[in-house]
Amino acid sequence: MNALVALADGFETVEALMTVDILRRGGVEVTTASISDSTEVVSAQDIKVTADTLLQGQKAADYDVFILPGGQPGTTNLSQNDDVKRLLEEAKTAGKKIAAICAAPTVFGQYGYLQGKKACCYPGLEEQLLGAEVTMDAVTVDGDVITSRGLGTALDFALAILEEISSHAKAAMIRKSVVA
To answer: What dihedral angle (degrees, nearest 10) is formed by the CA atoms of 110, 112, 113, 114?
Structure first.
């Protein structure tokens, strides 16, 4: 099991790193990838993180899930990045899972990936989930699309991804081990 987490300057720290942490605890090989030309990425909370690699040159075929954390201006930066768009297109074409939290599900809406799907996002951004049936659930899984509402739902988001690419049993074991 492999996951790719795209990091853009202005990403929401907890949403990104909680997801990486939980997936790694669950035995998933997680790669963090900076969308810029530097592996150093600065979160919306001014925390510097060194990504494992650059997003440029990555292939969706190498991963089971492509993950976008929210935050601003991180989400805006993701939505304007050609490599993010290319990887999302590759992932969708290959039937891979895509996941986004907080404001980042709006990127899926922008690219038309929510047509006929249920999805959720940060409160107030629902109109940007173009084509989606909007839910108010903490996490919404509809086929190959996983969305979540924000920092407070980050643990549930990460566990839902783990369940989707691994198993319910693995996700339950990790949930119990972190006292959730």
So the answer is: 90
Decide if 121 is catalytic.
Answer: no
Instruction: Write out pLDDT tens, residues 84-95.
Output: 999 999 999 999
DSSP state letter for 112: T
Contact (CB, 8 A) for 148 and 103: no
50: helix, strand or coil: strand
**Catalytic position from the list 44, 102, 103, 160:** 102
CA distances from 27 to 21, 50, 67, 178 (A): 10, 21, 16, 15
Q: Which helix (H) or strand (E) holds 98?
A: strand 97-101
Do 34 and 54 contact (CB within 8 A), yes or no? yes
* H or E, element range at 68: strand 65-68
pLDDT tens figures, 43-83: 999 999 999 999 999 999 999 999 999 999 999 999 999 99
